[in-house]
Amino acid sequence: MRLRAWVRRQSRKKLILAVVLGVPLLWTVGITVEALVRARLHDGQLQAPTRFYAGPIVLEPGMTVDRAEVESHLERLGYRATRRRNVAIGEYRLGSGTWIIGRRAFRHYDRLDPGGVVVVRVGYGGTVYSVRDDEGRQLRFAPLEPELIAAVHGDAMEDRVPVRLSDIPTELIEAILAIEDQRFFTHPGLDIRRIVGATKANVGAGRVVQGASTLTQQLAKNLFLSARRSPLRKLRELAMALTLEARHSKEEILEAYVNQVYLAQDGALAIHGVGRAAQVFFGKDVTQLDLGEAALLAGIIRGPSLYAPFRNPEAAETRRNVVLDVMLEQSVISEREHRQARSAPIRLRKKSQRTRSARYFLDFVRQQIAARHGGKALRQGLAVFTTLDLGMQRAAEEAVERGLHRLEREYPRLVREDRPLQAALVAVDPSSGGVLAMVGGRDYGGSQFNRAAYARRQPGSSFKPIVALAALAGRSFTLASVLEDAPLSVETPAGVWQPVNYDGRFRGEVTLRDALERSLNVPFARLGLAVGPEQIVETARKLGIKSPLHAVPSIALGASEVTPLDMARAFGVLAAGGYRSETHTTVGVLDRAGEVLSRYERAGEQVYRSDETYLVTSALRGAVERGTGRGLRAYGYRGAVAAKSGTTNDFRDAWFIGYTPELSVAVWVGFDDGKSLGIPGARAALPIFARFLSQAVGRDGDGEFSRPYALELGEVNAETGLRAGPGCRGELELFLRGTAPKESCSPYYVAAQRYRDLPSRLRERVEPLLREFRRWLDRGRN
User: Fold this and answer.
1) Smallest Cα–Cα separation from 421: which of 676, 688, 670?
2) pLDDT tens digits along 487-514
3) Which parts of 259-395 are beta strand (E)?
4) Measured between alpha carbons, how far apart are the two ends of the chain, in Å?
5) b/e per residue, 390-407, with b = 16+ CB within 10 A?
6) What whole-number distance in Å separates Cα of residue 25 and Cα of residue 5?
7) 3-class SS at 300?
């Protein structure tokens, strides 16, 4: 008896101690929880994430389009292929000459596109002849909805479409409550009856077979707690649930829950909330869900991976039927509704396929938005419409991956575990300045440093076109100007500079064209000295190079460091005929209310004349056909292209940069620590460039370069740089009007010139003899 009394006294003491210590503890936890609740529910954490969209495909008459690209685009967007001519919204039919696409409505950065059915007539080779609506009216163009690249919620890769509780179908709310929390509107945050029932079931089974968490507890766990299980975490979950119930109405809690609950994984994106899940699974707005679809969404909550409809359709259907059965038991639905919904097949939207990452590009865009709108802008549910071309991005990622693997396979010495071989690729639209593709390294997971945008490396010979433009635009030189290829020594503050050619040989006299096509260092060093380092820096600035440049003699051979983005921008000006567009990554940004926050207004200026830049283009086309870039043709690319390789001292950096009429691309390969590759740009970077270009614009290219009318042709002797003539053959060369050589290397021209140089008295004596000689020739002919 005494023992029992002692136990009772000890129990009372523990109870009193627990109350004394527990009340302040719960009060402290309550204050902390309230602060968290206020921060998460009222400061926008349940708002939509910032969503990044790629540039749309726009179908318009006259353009050339790739059928496979359009079909792949539609498939990734979840459109369904059909053979019916009566194509519905969200379907497409791509025939041999007629494409019918049921475009869904979508919001773009500057307008709401209502969508609708379009009929596109396509000819041989993918040329679009006409675009009409379903009533036969001619359309100037028809954009396809842009693809979602990623959705970022703060620093997390989460995607959701917030919805109001009043907009959610009653069937979905009833399904969630039936299967997850039947007494939600009557309990205070925890359900004692459910806890007792779950405990009995779990004890009887010897394992956890039934949960007892209410919706409020689930919301608290999802919002505030980690996934690690512990008694303390359960206590915090309970405290938070009680605080939620005390401070917020049931409707507010339920609305927060349906927007926060995790339901699926779509690539790198975690899908939260029924609004986005309805789109991902069914291609519908949540307001359009039927009973069976609502039951499926409610059933997924218990195990998003276990009941994933795309991966486990049978398990998903079984779970849907369980939800329907429970709803019938609770008299939420009728037997007829239950029977119809249970027998209906699950019709899922075609699963989208996203690009593997584009993470370097996304980071670059995010940094620009933060700089423009502030660091908190990305937490405000923006819609960011970018310039990214997803087809080109995939081609760029594949080209870099395969190119590096090929190099490591062919040159095993390049394999390094600590600091692996890296590459960067950036592609720019010359006419608009939009960045179309960006790869900042071989593996974003291994290194997030964006080498395409931020790594400054010496460009080597790929800088020579900039030197050539400075010389040609100044009209002191032409492509036919003769440069001396002989030993050169230049005194500089850093010591004597003695440039040499890559093979150590000297060739005497060569033309400027030949020096550029064959990438000869010494003639270009002389050219740079004649033009002046300051003028070269000024030219580079006009072309859009923003990296620091040093006006020293060696700048002519690419001694100053630049980024791949710098070089793609500069070569893009050459492609655009001297017009420099402002490089940009976004075309528009909307706030969470759908209002325009910012819009790209096309900006740029004509920094060089088109005839001046075309001279450089002509020489770089020659580099592809006859010079250091001729390996490009061996990879099967047949289209028009102007390009230049680049290799730095000791083979530390390998470059290949070029452009078509519609695309400028820069590729860099090297090690982050500057270790030598031992191979030039034409071997390391050119294959990556070639693979990307063939995928991006096709092996036949994207058109032809247009030669300006202001240029004139002249036949020039390559050895002398003089105009060709009888007895002195030459080849056609392009010149700015008025700069073609006047003097000829013809011996007859030389003799006539020497005669004109004779003193007048001597010419007076010779002239009668010449007239008599001409008469004698005329009598002989007669």
Assistant:
1) 670
2) 999 988 888 999 999 888 999 999 999 9
3) 262-266, 269-272, 383-386
4) 159
5) bbbbbbbbbbbbebbeeb
6) 30
7) helix
Query: Which residue type, as a one-letter code, is found at position 682?
Result: A
Strands 158-159, 269-272: pairing kind:
parallel
Count CB-CB contacts under 10 A for residue 118.
Answer: 22
Identify the bridge partners of residue 262 per DSSP, sorted by sequence position.
272
H helices of 212-268, where?
215-224, 231-247, 250-260
Give the closest residue to 88 by CA, choosing from 284, 266, 278.
284
Q: For 346, which DSSP code?
A: P
Task: State the DSSP string of 626-689.
Answer: TSTTTHHHHTT--S--EEEEEE-GGG-EEEEEEE-SS-EEEEEEE-TT----SS-HHHHTHHHH
Query: Is 215 strand, coil or helix?
Result: helix
Structure tokens at 641: 């292209």
DSSP 498: -
Q: SS3 for 508?
A: strand
Phi, psi of 139 (to 5 degrees): -115, 145
The sign of the dihedral angle between the CA atoms of 754, 755, 760, 765 is: positive
Q: Which of 171, 174, 180, 612 is catalytic?
A: 180
| CA dist., res. 562 & res. 537, Å (int) | 12
Catalytic residue among 213, 357, 461, 645: 461
- Give the pLDDT confidence of 98-147 residue by residue, as tens digits: 999 999 888 777 777 888 899 999 988 788 999 998 888 999 989 998 98
Work out whether the CA dihedral 673, 677, 681, 687 comes out positive or negative.
negative
- DSSP assignment letter at 10: H
461 among known catalytic residues: yes
* Contact by Cβ (8 Å): 628, 682: yes
Residue 687, φ and ψ in degrees, nearest 5: -60, -35
Backbone φ and ψ of 253, nearest 5°: -65, -45
Using alpha carbons, list the distances in angstroms from residue 75 to 68, 92, 310, 358: 10, 10, 15, 19
The amino acid sitting at 26 is L
Cα separation of 68 and 76, whole Å? 12
Phi first, then psi: give them for residue 50, nearest 5 degrees.
-75, 125
CA distance 152 to 355: 16
**Separation of alpha carbons 296 and 324, rounded Å:** 9
Top-ranked range on mean pLDDT: pick from 43-57, 441-455, 606-620: 606-620
Contact 54, 147 (CB under 8 A): yes
DSSP alpha helix (H) spans, 149-191: 170-180
Listing DSSP states for 424-467 in one string gives EEEEE-TTT-BEEEEE-SS-TTT----HHHH--B--GGGGHHHH
The per-residue pLDDT for 85 is 82
C-alpha 523/C-alpha 362 separation (Å) is 42
490-492 and 495-497 beta bridge pairing? antiparallel
What are the start-end ranges of the H helices in 543-592? 564-575
Do 154 and 379 contact (CB within 8 A), yes or no? yes
Residues with Cβ within 8 Å of 349's Cβ and at least 6 positions away in sequence, in order, are 78, 80, 90, 279, 280, 281, 282, 283, 284
Cα-based distances in Å from 209 to 200, 201, 238, 324, 329: 10, 7, 21, 20, 21
Tell the residue number behind the tokens 């950096």, with chain if given.
653
- pTM for the complete prediction? 0.76
Residue 655 CA to its chain's centroid (Å):
20
Residue reference for tokens 């770089």: 620
Structural contact between residues 715 and 685, judged by C-beta atoms closer than 8 angstroms = no
β-pair partners for 645: 656
Burial class (CB in 10 A: 0-12, 13-18, 19+), 547: middle
Mean pLDDT calculated for residue range 548-558: 95
Q: Please count the CA atoms within 13 angstroms of the CA of 29 that sit on its side-chain side.
A: 20
Helix (H, G, I), strand (E, B) or coil at 211: coil
Partners of residue 52 on adjacent β-strands: 150, 384
